[in-house]
């Protein structure tokens, strides 16, 4: 028994050390910075208590404006991208699952490859595609006579959001497609046979079997996409640079500007802690839903 405990401790040690060094210590230090009047150039000017948080929630400071503008932009991005991502991922999963077994694996790999590409490379490609001056999309649309003059995709709304959403969906659709495929494979095939016997078509299978059967996967995809949206930096910084007029500036970019442009480490840390709390709430929601699903399975199994 002692040997087993020792072996378990050795296996856990690397994870425990990484958790302490790369999560717990930065989080605790961030909490400390958030209650200090500190800048990168002047250093720590003393303890400020909750003043940094009060500045954020006061509503009439530049930090409050930056924080809530970042939150609003994240909300817009989530509302625009999540439904599209779920629909496209599910459609691709259904198409791939109905392909012949010989080529099914090939198409899974092809679609998943987009997720293996770095966000920098993805952003560079979409920056080239939607460039207002000589971009590929503009050239095609002008040549086909659909538009008379090039569109400034990245310098006007809602075009900037459209480009960001399309880029993000293209980048992540392969990963989410694989999640939906796993969900589809977990559905009992006898249910499909029962619907076929009753004369039900594709839409009957979709409504009464597929959607209820992958509801847990759909919930996971939605929550994880929301959590990932809070960490969105590369697409906004590289494709739209937060513009036009800060309308696509993510919360991470706002925090970065407060710390490195406005030289306010304390206020930026407070914003980061608040963002971390919001993300943690979504993560707790995901864990609760997963645990509830497991308990339901155990009850049904017994």
Automatic annotation (TrEMBL):
Gene3D superfamilies found in the cross-reference section: MetI-like
Keyword Nuclease listed: no
Main localisation = membrane
An example Pfam family from this entry, by short name, is BPD_transp_1
* GO terms (BP aspect): transmembrane transport
> What's the name of the protein?
Sugar ABC transporter permease
InterPro entries per the record? ABC_transporter_permease, MetI-like, MetI-like_sf
All residue ranges annotated as the ABC transmembrane type-1 domain in the record: 71-286
Membrane topology is: Multi-pass membrane protein
Q: Which family does it belong to?
A: Belongs to the binding-protein-dependent transport system permease family.
> Where can this protein be found?
Cell membrane
Q: List all membrane-crossing ranges.
A: 7-29, 74-97, 109-130, 159-181, 217-234, 270-289
Q: Cite the PROSITE patterns for this sequence.
A: ABC_TM1, PROKAR_LIPOPROTEIN
| One GO CC annotation | plasma membrane
Keyword tags: Cell membrane, Membrane, Transmembrane, Transmembrane helix, Transport
């Amino acid at each position: 028994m002692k040997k087993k405990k020792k072996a378990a401790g050795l296996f856990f040690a690397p994870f425990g050390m990484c958790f302490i060094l790369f999560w717990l210590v930065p989080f605790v230090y961030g909490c400390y910075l958030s209650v200090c009047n500190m800048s990168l150039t002047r250093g720590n000017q003393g303890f400020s208590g909750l003043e940094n948080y009060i500045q954020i929630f006061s509503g009439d400071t530049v930090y409050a404006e930056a924080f809530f503008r970042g939150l609003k932009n994240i909300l817009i991005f989530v509302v625009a991208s999540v439904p599209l991502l779920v629909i496209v991922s599910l459609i691709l999963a259904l198409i791939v699952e109905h392909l012949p077994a010989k080529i099914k694996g090939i198409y899974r790999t092809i679609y998943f490859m987009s997720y293996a590409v770095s966000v920098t490379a993805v952003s560079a490609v979409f920056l080239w595609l939607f460039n207002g001056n000589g971009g590929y999309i503009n050239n095609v649309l002008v040549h086909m006579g659909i538009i008379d003059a090039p569109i400034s995709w990245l310098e006007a709304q809602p075009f900037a959001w459209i480009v960001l959403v399309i880029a993000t969906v293209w980048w992540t659709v392969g990963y989410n497609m694989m999640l939906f495929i796993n969900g589809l494979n977990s559905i009992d095939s006898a249910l499909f046979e029962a619907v076929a016997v009753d004369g039900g078509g594709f839409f009957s299978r979709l409504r009464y079997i597929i959607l209820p059967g992958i509801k847990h996967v759909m919930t996971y995809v939605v929550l994880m996409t929301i959590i990932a949206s809070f960490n969105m930096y590369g697409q906004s910084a590289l494709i739209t640079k937060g513009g036009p007029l800060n309308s696509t500036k993510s919360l991470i970019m706002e925090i970065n500007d407060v710390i490195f442009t406005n030289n306010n480490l304390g206020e930026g840390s407070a914003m980061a802690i608040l963002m971390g709390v919001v993300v943690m709430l979504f993560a707790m929601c995901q864990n609760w839903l997963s645990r509830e699903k497991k308990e339901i399975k155990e009850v049904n199994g017994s």
